[in-house]
């Protein structure tokens, strides 16, 4: 082997405001064409390679605006309708060309292709294109990185704070959606200016890429040109290879211009009868439909029919040529530099499929060839290369971009220079707003967040680029002017105290991307971070955490959550006080691993002649009394209140009002969700108390996207108020113990919504196949008698052990004995017990509901089944018991995921970010 090839695709489209009506918009068509021609074909191609065991590697930059659109359910639904319309046109084209020997094969090709794409999007991916990308990353085929929040061109952004916001908002959003921090960063348009590396380093970025001349003009000049990375300000910089770019980008000299390939500019949207096409034309105006029947042919108006099979042969020829030239490059540099050369080949993702129709096929063939052992170059990701060959040279860089002229000309010229004074004025105004406000009201917070969104959206590099190329100038001008007008209207209302809530709500509904946007990034004293992305704690925060249960006195997962979160926060240098229920009748305080735990009296418990709500009131009075004492003791230090669920809501609200302390609420479950509705006055009261807690809190934390949606649908908090931070789990080491017959384990509360009744029915049928199997049900709850009765009715009582409530030690013993752990919930906000089984390396089966569906990736880290479906659960049980090797693979993947994404250290750092967001650290 002589070198390495690092192919990078940059996927970006500007954000589309949510449409008001049912009609397809011009912006949506832009996105939907890219999905149909580029993104979906590329993902399917990569999955095909992975399924064939091809060890390809690729780096993918996903812009936050594109990512936010890919996860938007409304866009997913509307894209499905777009595909339906395209298939309808394809069917009509099949009929129209049925007697035409030249064009009938092309029409048939388009029909089959669209049908396959529709099945993939709707049935295989169910509208979710992010999950398959995550899976490819988990397999090691993709390294996914990010770029600026709205693709802002950093060299022309005036203030460091506004540059920082473009970077940090992107990194935060990436972590929130992808579940990990990006190692690399794609500078929009490869636009670099000195000092940008400092902002990237603060955000925890390890490397970025510059245009070839950016590295070649560095001082001192790099010894290996662009074929080895260098260091700049503590970060690694790779240089873009010009030769690979020219071979693929150039339409006149590169591969896409070959006469055999499809002609981009000839479309039936301009050729066929208008009345025939009218139902498929946007706004009744002629335009591209995607149905193109001709090949490039040559520089002539007389075009030949397109032949996809002939194009595929040419694809293979060009892929061989590409790889041969990479070998030549690598062999040239071998021996002329220390280490092995890396050829960095970045491209816009939309080139493959949209501009160059055969691009995805060509890329697939290149990846196949490069993954073989027939070439001197080996595929790599940029992080993988860095692990082997860290940079040896330190240089200084000047301005550069990959645009025409190599610097800023494309984004700053007489066609677009009018916008920069307005953008720079808005930057300063945003900075003034953020600097002025240290304790905003909820409405002011919304205004600040939306103003930041409008500024970010106005800064997109797409608008000045469109103005320069003069393609859809009116649209670009309209977007720029609209975002700037929105910003200054918000700014004026904020400065003059005339906040327009209706106007704000309208903007949030149309342009509500980045719901957790941190507007404090625009403050001049922006919070700093280490190179690893971890927040450095200068002033030690003080947190008063309220919870009704805490180990060893706990019923479910809430107490475990509070204990492990508080301990992890203490390790992050947070001073944590936990107020909770005393195990007896006397108050006491202890210090446990750095956390002060204050037990308040139990009083008389419910069920002893005391009404439940009256007991809750008494408990909250005791919590509040202890809270007053602690506030006075900790004064004048600032204290953050953190309440866990409605049982402590009254005390939390009283302390907030008495001391003006910020309040954060973690909603672990809702009364509505637990009972699948509100069926009696008690449930209505509890629901109301939950709503008051959500309304009173500055921030609401939920453990899953499912739970966040439930809270938003039930209580309608302002946009951006709810944050998703998953539960964590401690490392669990178990000892495998041999038992007679396979053991199926359930751990959790015994209530209807946990679905144990479904497990019992499936287990009864499993015994006909595996008569030696045993089921252990570990947990306590009001539904236990009914479950035992059901086991007797099913004649399986002798094979089912109801173990009652078990300690963590006993739980670990049971995990060590079990073949599989099953969590069949009908309603599950998160499912920490499933996470614990995964951490222990036990194969898991979960119902496809709530947080469980987010934790377990079906077929990768476990199996999932339809909630309440006995037959589907039986299928999963049989598969696990019949395929021990596959079950072991699930366990390994699951444990790796837990160790990567669900450590309490990571959860504590995310929680600490929320504390800091409300601006109340001392």
From TrEMBL:
Domain 1,4-alpha-glucan branching enzyme C-terminal: 423-522
GO molecular function, one term: 1,4-alpha-glucan branching enzyme activity
All copies of domain Glycosyltransferase subfamily 4-like N-terminal, residue ranges: 555-729
Glycosyl transferase family domain mapped to chain residues: 736-896
Leader peptide range in chain numbering: none
Binding site for substrate: 240, 257, 402, 462
Active site: 189 (nucleophile), 348 (proton donor)
UniProt keyword list: Carbohydrate metabolism
Pfam family, one: BE_C
UniProt key word Hydrolase: no
A GO CC term attached to the entry: extracellular region
Domain Glycoside hydrolase family 57 N-terminal: 6-396
Family the UniProt entry places it in: Belongs to the glycosyl hydrolase 57 family.
Protein's name in the database: 1,4-alpha-glucan branching enzyme
